[in-house]
């Protein structure tokens, strides 16, 4: 489990960064001495792509495109001792959203961390197809998944996608990790992650928190939906 870095950890990180910079500098020197024009052509394309990635890193952003790498980063930051509160927004576009084997594993990780004291709040954005207007609860296939999270102590808030017709920028999958960072999932039509960006820039974090607060305005606590007279929450 990661912890807040102290003085010794900071010094170790700087030392590792220095070693990494030496390795990169040496490799660039070796590349520059290769004379094959075809190699240099492809090497330059690769290097410019890497340069863009370094620009992202300098801005505080870590971008993951493979499933295992982003799940590892996601689970790692949630387990940090300094992250006490996790806010999650899920745009649920399929009935099996996060219910495949990898998704179930990540959900179980949420449950385990919740039992260890991590506070988890989750806003679910649902298309009207899965939660028709006038229906007290979402469709049966989703209700089981939602109820399981509720029983595990995750605080759930629900809203319909059409509630956000005037604010399309709020429709997204993202998470806020304590006061450290936020993450954005970019999904395909089957709700499979194609890109996950973990952003540590303070300004980006504040913007994500503001998006969360705006979403709360439209949301209804799931616990209220289970009561006879649910009320809309504005906060």
Fold and architecture overview:
It contains seven helices and eight strands. An eight-stranded mixed sheet has the order 1-7-6-5-2-3-4-8, with helices on both faces. It starts with 6 loop residues before the first helix and ends in a 10-residue tail after the last helix. Strand 6 and strand 7 form a beta hairpin. The chain has two domains: about 50 residues; about 160 residues, Endonuclease, Chain A (2-Layer Sandwich). With about 240 residues, it is α+β, with helices and mostly antiparallel strands. About 45% of the residues lie in helices and about 20% in strands.
Q: What attributes does this structure have?
A:
single chain, 235 residues, alpha+beta, Endonuclease, Chain A, 2 domains, 20% strand, elongated
Brief account:
The protein contains seven helices and eight strands.
Write the layout of secondary structure elements.
Layout: H1 7-32, H2 37-58, E1 61-64, H3 67-78, E2 85-91, H4 101-115, E3 119-126, H5 140-151, E4 155-160, E5 173-177, E6 181-187, E7 193-199, H6 202-218, E8 220-221, H7 222-225
Parallel strand pairs: 2-3, 3-4
Antiparallel strand pairs: 1-7, 2-5, 4-8, 5-6, 6-7
Count of DSSP E strands? 8
Residues in helices, as a percent range:
40-55%
State the low-pLDDT regions, or none: none
Structural class: alpha+beta
Number of helices: 7
Query: Which architecture of the largest domain per CATH?
Result: 2-Layer Sandwich
Residue-averaged pLDDT, rounded? 89
